[in-house]
Amino acid sequence: MAARAEDLLPVEYFHVVFTLPAEIAKIAYWNKKAVYDLLFRASAETVTTIAADPKRLGACIGMTSVLHTWGSALTHHPHVHMIVPGGGLSPDGQRWIACRPGFFLPVRVLSRLFRRLFIEGLLALHRAGNLAFFGELAGLAEADAFAAWLAPLRKSEWVVYAKPPFGGPEAVLAYLSRYTHRVAISNSRLINADAETVTFRWKDYRIKNGDRQKVMRLATDEFIRRFLIHVLPDGFHRIRHYGLLAGAGRKAIVTKIRTLLGAESQDEAPSAEIIPLTLRQPCPDCGGPMRIVEIFRRGQQPRSRAPPRHQAA
């Protein structure tokens, strides 16, 4: 976390999620390293390509990607969470180009390119003999059968989801500290466990309106099976950095960007009004905008709240 804090920029950050279709997840089940690597590469190339397009942002960007392979019920659900600064360097590297406030890149455009890049990569893995097929998928080892099986996926919608922007760099760090090193289920969700069954809480995201919190009871061996699905191949890195945030030159680039951002802020008129960051939801009491006073991590004492004074005996 200390290393990531050094890379944070004083800009708006965005959260983008790339999810594999259920059909592709079946192949990933038996080919974790190859397919998860491709998921990382295709999603990163998608964002960097669209961001570099002069019609979109026209900038060289950087990002941190985190792989999750589970759904709330411990099912196999491979997806990548991507944390992206809201802007990038101009092609000549001399200017910081910021995206529009609250908007990064169009998700439909991202989805279409991601779909094409991933399918092309999957076909390349198949031609190279780097995919294994078992059970009901054994027939996909044949090139013609595999191509025919992929055909409907070229026309279906692939899920790329852009979440609301983070509240600021501190919120990005808090997110990374919570989610980058977590396993498929946390201890807080476990209710009971014995030799026969394991009981835990999960969220049913299919419920749009209403209580998503559910309780699931699984036979102990089934719980272990689901948990072990999410054990990654030995040496596999589930946190990766791309673009401006990749490689040994990252620190120099981050320092340069901070210098450019500092120069921009100095060029602004001293009388320019500073608009405080606000939440998207209005105040439930008066209906007015709710302003973010401070962002702090769990267990941390807020600076805006003075500690209670001890009363005299």
From TrEMBL:
GO molecular function: DNA binding; transposase activity
Family annotation (InterPro entries): Transposase_32
Coiled-coil annotated residue ranges, if any: none
Residue ranges occupied by any Transposase IS801/IS1294 domain in the UniProt entry: 62-248
GO BP, sorted A to Z: DNA transposition
Record's protein name: Putative transposase
Lineage: Bacteria, Pseudomonadati, Pseudomonadota, Alphaproteobacteria, Hyphomicrobiales
